[in-house]
Design a protein that fits this description.
Elements: H1 17-21, E1 33-38, H2 40-50, E2 53-60, E3 66-74, E4 79-84, E5 104-109, E6 114-120, E7 130-133, E8 135-141
Parallel strand pairs: 1-7
Antiparallel strand pairs: 1-4, 2-3, 2-5, 5-6, 6-8
C-alpha cells in the first residue's frame, strides 16, 4: 500500500508560458518509434476530465522549444500512440526522441484548454518499447497568467516540468517503495522489501 506525502517545492527557469500555450502537435514520421497504449480505464478517465482533444509527446530542443514527436486525436476510446525516435541520418536537427529521453505529455482539448500530463507508468523513450498507461495526473496550463500550478519536485511521483507556482500537490512514494508501490530493494523477490 502506498502512503502519500505532500510537500512544497519550488523550481525556476522553466520554458516560457507562451511556448506551453502555443504547441504544435504536428510531427515527422522518422521510421522508428515506441508504442504508448492508453488503457480503456485511463482513456475514459482522461476524456471525462479533459474532454476530447489531441494528445502529444514532446521534448525540449536545444532552443527550449517544445518539439512534438507523436500525437493523435483523443476520445474516450483506448488508443495506441507511436512516439517517434530521432532519425540519425538528419544530423543537423533532432526530429525525435533519443534513447532514454524524458517524454513530456501535453493535451489540448477541443475547447482550447491546454494540459500538462504526468502519466503512469512514466517511461522514458525506448525504440521498439511498449508501455501501457493506467493512470494520469492532468494540470491545466493557465495561458492568461505567468503562473503554472503543480508539483515542481523532480523526485515526486507527480512531477510537473511546467510548474512555476506552488500548489501543495507533490505526491511521494512510501519509504522503500517506488511510485507504483513496488519495493526498491527485493533481492529474494518475495514482494517484501529487504529493509523490512
Amino acid at each position: 500500500m502506498k502512503k502519500l506525502v505532500i510537500l512544497i517545492i519550488s523550481l525556476t527557469g522553466l520554458p516560457s508560458l507562451f511556448a506551453q500555450c502555443d504547441l504544435d502537435f504536428s510531427f515527422i514520421n522518422t521510421g522508428s518509434n515506441m508504442t504508448v497504449f492508453f488503457t480503456p480505464t485511463a482513456a475514459s478517465a482522461m476524456a471525462d476530465e479533459m474532454g476530447e482533444g489531441t494528445i502529444g509527446a514532446f521534448f525540449l530542443n536545444d532552443t527550449d522549444t517544445y518539439f512534438c514527436s507523436g500525437s493523435t486525436v483523443f476520445t474516450s476510446a483506448p488508443i495506441s500512440l507511436a512516439v517517434m525516435g530521432d532519425d540519425t541520418t538528419s544530423e543537423d536537427i533532432q526530429d525525435g526522441f533519443n534513447a532514454n529521453q524524458e517524454i513530456l505529455w501535453f493535451y489540448e482539448s477541443n475547447d482550447g484548454s491546454v494540459y500538462s500530463l504526468t502519466l503512469s507508468p512514466n517511461e522514458p523513450y525506448t525504440t521498439n518499447g511498449l508501455t501501457a498507461i493506467t493512470e494520469f495526473v492532468a494540470t491545466i496550463v493557465s495561458c492568461g497568467s505567468e503562473d503554472v500550478f503543480g508539483c515542481s519536485d523532480i523526485s515526486a511521483c507527480n512531477y510537473n516540468v511546467l510548474a512555476t507556482a506552488l500548489d501543495e500537490s507533490c505526491i511521494y512514494a512510501e519509504i522503500n517503495f517506488d511510485c507504483d508501490g513496488y519495493c526498491l530493494n527485493d533481492i529474494d523477490t518475495d514482494a517484501i522489501c529487504d529493509e523490512n
